[in-house]
Every structure is written in structure tokens, then in C-alpha cells.
Amino acid sequence: MKRSAYFLSVVGAFLCFTVVVAQPPKSQQYVYQDRSRSFEERADDLLQLLTLDEKIQLMQDVSKPVTRLGIKPYNWWNEALHGVARSGLATVFPQPVGMAASFDEVLVNRVFSAVSDEARAKYSRYVQQGSHERYQGLTMWTPTINIFRDPRWGRGMETYGEDPYLTSLLGVAAVQGLQGPSGGEYDKIHACAKHFAVHSGPEWNRHSFDAKNIKQRDLYETYLPAFEALVKDGNVREVMCAYNRFEGDPCCGSDQLLMQILRRKWGFEGIVVADCGAIADFYKIGAHQTHADAAQASVTAVRAGTDLDCGTSYRALLEAVQTGVIKEKEIDASVRRLLLARFRLGEMDEYSDVPWNHIPYHVVASAKHHALSLQMARASMTLLQNKNHILPLNRTGLKIAVMGPNAQDSVMQWGNYNGTPAKTVTVLEGIREALGSHGEVIYEQGSGLVENYIMESAYNQCKTEKGKGFQASYWNKKSPDGLPDVETNMPTPFALCTSGATVFAPGVALQDFFARYNTTFTPQKNGEVVFDLYVNGEAKLKIDGKEVKSVKTGHGSRKMNYMMSVEQGRSYAIELDFSYFKGDAQLNVDFGYRRAIDVKESIAKVASADIVIFVGGISPALEGEEMGVNFPGFRKGDRTDIELPAVQREFLAQLKKAGKKVVFVNCSGSAVGLVPETEHCEAILQAWYPGQAGGTAVAETLFGLHNPSGRLPITFYRDTTQLPDFENYDMKGRTYRYFNGKPLFPFGFGLSYSSFQYDRMKVDQNVLKRGEGTKIRLTIPIKNVSQRDGQEVVQLYIKRKGDEDGPRKELRAIKKVDISAGEIASVLIELSEKEFAWWDEEQLAVVPVSGTFEVMVGGSSQDQDLQRTTVEIK
């Protein structure tokens, strides 16, 4: 095959590296080694050379080498949700739900093109070092395109929101950015659409939960469209099946989902990978228990089309074949797909022959990518309230009090499934930098997230030979014998957990490991220091070589606190030993000076401020994937209510009572009920988890250096009384499409510092005949009636008249346009018959149908923002 001109231009200036890998003897020339052959021919040839045992080894996420055939070891598990994750240095972009607020598929594509550059560069570095561990490969298990149907779901922040169209649009953009342009000899990396398919909480029972009695309409209209789009339009190379059951069958063993729909109806030919440990859930006590053992579970999964087990259950396939339960030929179908993927990535060929391998390492966490992270963070900023146009703030002579638990929390900004950025700009730092010499900043945290105390961390007063924080050493065995297997530095307070099969650090085992954390602590003041630990396993804390506290858990995680008096300037040697015990290993560590919240005292400290910027909300430490930590209002990472935590709500009420003008910056990955806050605060800015440059983006927005254009990709409800039962997957009453109540802030809503006036839209025709390939053209004149340039997000919704059981409205087109002050933009939107696809009860499918449709265009989904016309489809 010839390489495309595109690849030659990309790699022309790059250095080449030579890597020695195991290869068969030169005298053996196989078809699979011949690069002039197609990948399909090469995979077919290699398949017939493998033994049964070798095939089964290749069907596990930790794929062992087949040295005699030159197959290198490969670990399939890697992550890139919003940047290369869990593999050290990487650019951290805003959390996906924040990216979704941009309503900008072009920018999303640029972000993931940068992510895939870093992924290839990091892979190349690891290969040069001879390392093939988890989080070092080319198969990225992202994006998450489940529908965020309920704001209580802890993992909703990993999605692109509640709308199937927006999720499809941005999901395809992410996949295409990750996998690289089509037409080249090799794929850049492989993306993975997850979690297939009816999967969006709860987290606490996901290993046993059965999503059942799902209406066919909800299945095909809500839960499947994004997956279908990524398969058909995005050519996604992998799909991950979910933990839960679907209509009685574990998703990874569902013939209906994986064979009938994914492979036969949609024609998906790529890899289906099981979520980690999902096959074991078939037979584990306390999980689904639909199968007796690993062999039965594995046979069912393979026959349903699951090719790769993230786990070890597939080892039982060897005995299953030998005893005649399954035929080797059935396994071959999966192995062939796995081999084909590795050929497409160039992983089976000489390192230097693959152009993508020559992307230089200096792209990782580069200044260019930091700028792109800032651009995306700006685009995600969503202004929800701006009473009396208090924003943007005039910097001249302004005295600002910055308060709240998220004001200087860099880790919060990273979200989850993240890498480690070279630098993070906190909101406090961003405000100080943006204000500069124009005014004055007072910082007083005042409130915790959910606690009635404040921890002033002393972590930054710790140093090791390798820098700030703790030195972490790991042994992949139960005791610290010999040299550590992995060593790394922990510069920030850590929250480690193996829930969801997440390792403590790259190269560390999931279980039966030992960890030791060392540092030297030199206090900057006298006082009482509290060590705050949350542990599942066995932990021992030593100060100056003496054990002062230990905890060993028998069931679930436990808190461990230790208080000690410290003297300023004296050095204390701190050592924390941790060993896996049973269940999910967990270790959260921070320590510092703890003091009770004193609202009056804190407000008194900011009495002279002209305005208070309160940076609150929630945190990935509270919401997330199957977490072991429970707080009031939270359960296993899900939420039991959606209101702002009480401690913050009360603090904001007291600020209002004291006569302070408050701008509330809400950081969250999900909708927060902010009814009292709309009364207590002058302005509300939704900042999401904005990534490493988030503090700059927030500050620029507050001071008018950036004009906000973000729009809500989810409905902000008033409170939990507006929500149906969390475990009910019926879409009735959910999301803007089916919710009949009055939300606090509707889907698609967001304010700007500019004002836009929509003139009446013009339609070139009101009748469209199916099958003729014609289009309806709508022209929407929009005038910027303000004195400021801005961006408007034009949203088009449709509804089929007479369909009382269907959605109230469906997003079907987006146009993001720049409009200068005083100027008029004529926005053109073209609609073909595919935009009028609707549920057809006879075909049990979403297809172009005849009927009368209402077409609605405006700046949000709320009725008063939309103008309407009628279109007839024949």
C-alpha cells in the first residue's frame, strides 16, 4: 500500500526512532508480514497460525506476547475522556458536559485531534522504553455517549448531555478527532463508544441492575441514536458494552443489543469490549448471577459478539472449547477483529514504518494545547443569570472578595478520567491575574463543600527529594520486599480507588499490592494538624518512625483521623503504608489545619469588598463513578438530591442578609437546583469542571474579556420533586423533550453580554416530498442590537403534530454564528427529509415519515424564545 500525501507531509519534519521487537526468523516469510497485502489478508493469515491458547490470551485486555510470531504484548485499556488520562503528564480539557455547552462540533473535533496527538506521542515514548502497560496503548475507551437522562447520575458529567442529536453531533466529532483523517494507511488511534446501551445509573447497583420494560420508542429514539451515529457516521472502531442488564440479559451478553442491532442492523464490524469486570458480573455473588461460572459467562459473551474481556474470565474459554461447549471457529471471529484492529493501528508493523509514531513528544502538555484548553473552557462558560447587567465587572478600582470551596481547588477543575496537567490556573488565580493592578482581591474561603468545617491543607508544606508532596512507592505483592515495581510523585492531595477497575498508578496491580507514601513535613505555623484519611484496605500512619494510627477495614471504606500538635519550622518525617485487603481498594489523603466554619467572622473579613465572587457548587470528589464516599445528598457518586449543599446555601443567604452583592460561580458536572440562589445572588455563571485553564476562562468572563456563548446541554430543574424515579428508564417526564413542568433554566439556555433580535424567518417552501432529495431552506435574520460583538447559538427544533405520546420538541440543527455589534446575520439552515425522521410505530424505527411538522427556531428550547412555522412532509 502507498502512504497518503497527508501522512508524508505530517511526518516530514519528525525524527525517526528504531525499536527492537520480537520478530520471527528472517527465513520465515508469512503473508501477515507483507505490508503490500491488505490488513484483512494479513489478519486471516496470522489467525490460522495461532494456537487456541494464544488466541484466548489475545482476547483479554492484558494481551500477552506471542514471541514466536512477533506479536508484542499489548494492553487494550487506555482513557482519553477529555485528554489522555491516568498516564501522567497531559493537557486536561474541560469535562465533556462542559464541552457540550459549547454546542460546537468543530471545536470539539480540534480538541480531540490534539488529544490523539498527545496519545500517539506518549505511546511512542512508552514503546521506546519497552513498556506496554495499562494507559499506554492506542485504544482509547472514550467517548461516553450515554444520554444524561437524570441529573442524579454521578457519571453524567462524562457525557455530552441529555439530547440525542447534540450527543451524536459531538460524539462523532470526538471520534473523528481521535481516529484521525480517513484515507491513510494507518489509524491514528481507536476510539470506543460507551456504554452500550441503556445505561445511565444508578451507580450503587450497576453490577446487578436490570434496565427492563424499556419502550421500543425510548430505545430507538433516545438510548440508541448516538451509538448508531458513531458507528455509521463516525466509523468508530470499538464499542463498549455496559455493566447492567438489558431486559434480563447482561449487556455484554445481549444478543439483541450486540448481534441483532449493533452488528446486523447497523453493520458494525469493529471490536466490542466488555466494561472492566462486566463478564465476571454474570456469575459473581451479589452481581447479576445469570450464569453459573466463568466458562458459561464467557461462552455467552463471545456468542453475543463481545470480543475482548477487560478481566480474566475469558481464560475459561480454553476449557469450554476443549469440552465442546463452544467451537474454536466461534472464537476466531473475535480474534480476527482484534488482530485487524492492531494491524490498522500499525501496532503489528515496524515502529518506524508508522507515520503517526513520529509525532514529537513535545506536543504533550504543550503551550499550544493549553491555549486550546483555554479556548474550549471559554466556549463552555454558561451565564445563567445577570441581574441589572452586573456583569461584566468593571475592573477599575474594584475591591473583590473571592470566597467558596472551589475557588482555589485545582483538582476539582480536572473532573474525572483525567491526566496531570503541567499547570492549572485556579479561579482565584485567574481573578487575581485578570484584575491585576486595576483593583484588589481578598480571599476568604468561608464555606466547605458539604462539611461544616474548613480544612486549610498543609500538603503544600511537604517535600521529597523529587519535589513537593509525597513520594509513592508500589510493590505488586502484599509486602514491600525488594525494590518497588513503580515509583511516582504525588504533588497534590490524593483520592485513589480501584472502583471501576482503576489502578492506583500505571503499572500497579488492581489487588494484592502494597503502597508506601513518604514525605517531610515542615509546618509554617504552630497548631493542631488533622490527618484526614478515607480507607478501604489496611493503612498505617507513622510520624518520625513511630506508628501513631492504623485502620483495617473488613467491609467497605472507613474514615481515619489523627490529630497532632506541630511546631513551626520543625521537620516531621511522615510515612503512610497501605495494603490491599478486600473489595475495592481506596485511599483518600489530605491533612492540614481544620477549623469550624464561622459565617459571621468570614463575612466580617469581606465587609469592605465591593462585590463577592463565591465559587461553589460540587466536586468530582462528591459525584462520579461508583464511589466509596457517601456524603449528605450523595450515594456512591450519585446524588440523592440536586440542591446546592446546605452549608453553601446558608452561607449565600447570610451574604445576602449582610447586604453583599454576590456573583455565584457554580462548578459541577450536573444540574444543580439553585432556586434560593437566584434570589440571593446577582449573577450565576455555570463553569462546569473547566480543565486546566478554567480559572482564566472564568475570570475573563466575569470581567468581560470574554463574551459568554455557552448553552446548557442539560435541563436545570428546580429540585428533585420535578424528577421521576431514578431507576425508571421511561423517558416520560425526563429532559426537555418530555418534561412538562417549568424548569429553573431550560435546555439550550445561556445569556450573552450581547443582545440578539430575531426577525421573522423565511421559508422557501413548506412542502417536502420524500425520496426526491430536495431540501427546505430557512433564512433567519438576526440582529445584534447591542454595542458588543457576540456569538449566538441558533437552535432548530421540530415536533410532529398529532403525536401526543412523542417528544414536545426535538433538536435537529445548530448554527453558531458571530455577529458584530449593530450587524444583521442571515442564518441559513437547510433541512432534508432525514431531519424529519420520527418514530414510526409500524416499522418500530425512527425513519423519515409523512405528516405535518412544527419547525421552531430560536436561542433556547423554551417556548417564548422560539418562532414557528409549519412544514408538510409527503
UniProtKB/TrEMBL annotation:
Signal peptide: 1-22
Superkingdom of the source species: Bacteria
Stored PROSITE patterns: PA14
Domain PA14 per the UniProt entry, residue ranges: 465-607
Keywords noted in UniProt: Glycosidase, Hydrolase, Signal
EC number of the protein: 3.2.1.37
SUPFAM superfamilies in the record: (Trans)glycosidases, Anthrax protective antigen, Beta-D-glucan exohydrolase, C-terminal domain
GO molecular function terms listed in the Swiss-Prot or TrEMBL record: xylan 1,4-beta-xylosidase activity
Family designation: Belongs to the glycosyl hydrolase 3 family.
Protein's name in the database: Xylan 1,4-beta-xylosidase
